[in-house]
Amino acid sequence: MRRIEFPSGKKFGICLTHDVDRIDKKWWHCIYYFMKTKRFYHIKTLLTKWKNNPYWNFDKIMALEDRYGVRSTFFFLNETKKLELLNPKTYPLSLGYYDINDPNVVNIIRELDENGWEVALHGSYDSYKNEDLLLKEKKTLEKILGKKVIGVRQHFLNLDIPNTWQIQKEVGFKYDASFGFRDRVGWRDRKYLPFRPFEEDDFLVIPLTIMDVALERSSKSLKEAVEKVEAILKYAERRGCLVTVLWHQRVFNEKEFPGWSKIYEKIIREGIRKQAWFGTCREVYDLLSDSYEILCSYNS
User: Fold this and answer.
1) DSSP state, residue 81
2) Which pTM does this prediction carry?
3) Alpha-carbon gap, residue 226 to 185, rounded angstroms
4) What is the pLDDT of residues 37-56, one digit of tens each?
5) What angle do the packed helices 260-273 and 222-239 form, to 10 degrees?
6) Where are the beta strands (DSSP E) in the chain?
7) pLDDT at 213 over 70
8) Calpha distance 148→140 (Å, rounded)
9) Cα(260)–Cα(240) distance, integer angstroms
């Protein structure tokens, strides 16, 4: 396997990321999670969420990462998919999302950016195949930030390879972070390092390794989930891989998702113990900006 040199002689790399899909717990979330877990807590939040939003959690993430001296990339969504009453498949894709121009959202985007976190675009559900839509979403986020946005991850990890990457490149993105599994963890197609799908330019694909949703779906218990994380970190340490981690900000409420913020913290703690280099997606891109010769293409 080809290797890259991580800064300060670190053995491998960890890239921390968060997809911001939903920032408000709706009534149907309360019902769904009550039916799934049989915990009356979720019914209680139906009555109290107006004064305590369980899904916000940005302050918790910032405090946690500050404590360990690391930073992450937040991918913000601008979903505009229309609801079709006669098509139930559109319900979860259209309902419950936020307005990216909401003052509270604008404020947290700017606060993250001003304090060293990276803000990137979480391309909407259909944008992976729609250049005009993706460009519009990019410009909206750039207007909020007041500067260029270089990174994107597609909602639901939607990809039409290589067409999506071509669209992303055409609208001005420098990297994509969508290449991974929806239902399990690990490195898709054994891409242990970022790669360039188009060898003639600097567009970079940063593979996704561990997503909270995929880890939960593929594990019978929290214990098994932790064991899978430990195995991935051990392998990465031995082989010099990049481990890209995706934890949605809503799971950092321990009452809502018991144990899952602890697993995220364990990844950071174990990474530090194993002498991992930590970087945002942008820092990964910058690290590899001159490394054409060591980065394999998608087909190699």
Assistant:
1) P
2) 0.93
3) 12
4) 777 676 777 666 555 788 99
5) 20
6) 12-20, 73-77, 118-123, 151-154, 175-176, 204-205, 210-211, 242-246, 276-279
7) yes
8) 11
9) 26
